[in-house]
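Morning run. Coffee first, then this:
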Amino acid sequence: MKDLRARLGFGALLVAAVVGVFWLDHGAAGPHLTIGVLTALTLLAQVECCRMLTAAGLRPQAMAAFALGLGTLAGAAFGWDWAIASALPLAFYLAFEVMRREPEGAALRLGGTLLAWVLVPLMLSQAIVLRSAVPHGWSWLIFLVAVCKAGDSSAYLIGTAFGRHKLIPEVSPNKSWEGAAASMVFGTLAGWLVVSTAFPVAAAPALTLWLPAALLTNLGAQFGDLVESLIKRSGASKDSATLLPAFGGAFDLVDSFLLASPALVIFLHLAGYSSVG
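And here it is:
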């Protein structure tokens, strides 16, 4: 009960902060504030991810992972070509590892560094793409956050109260099928609410677009959470950090976006939305 009260109290502050950022984004600050906040959270989450991978036995190079992540996030923000934003920094990093002339432990260094890059900034860069490159990106980013976090919260509350059937206990012992179902239902309802209120009336996406988008986004959110749980258990970590009371660290805060962000962007692209606006 104490943990629930802490989650509700600090969660209310987080919701207020997010609303404030989106309000400023829609006004004088523009998208730069939101992109800056996303970048900061992503890089902080990547630092925490490096610690978790180290605990799991890998040897990520934090500075190299940071440089790779910063290049990817900058590319997403400024609309750079993928080869410039991702492949070029990766090529330099691989060449750097060769020039170190330290074959001992190289696989652990490469594996940890590249996993920390791919898992966090490469995936979360799609949230920046959503805001900066997709038509009505402000509304779609709210859609992403609402679907993911409404799903997270409902899964926790319903799963804690009524969860009886374990989802994947080997990966996350506390998650249940009841919580997963609640996440899907309430995440979809949150998507409907955003579509009804945050989009211009003339540009509100049709049911045939937003409903599958909400379902895929929620599914990605649930698997993103499980991916972090997988890494936690491999290194016997409970939370990625203790930055946020009752929530853990930045990685714990953004884990649901890891797969949800690219899922939503890819779906909108395949649906032709990004080209027709």
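The CA atoms of residues 42 and 186 lie 26 Å apart. Good start to the day.
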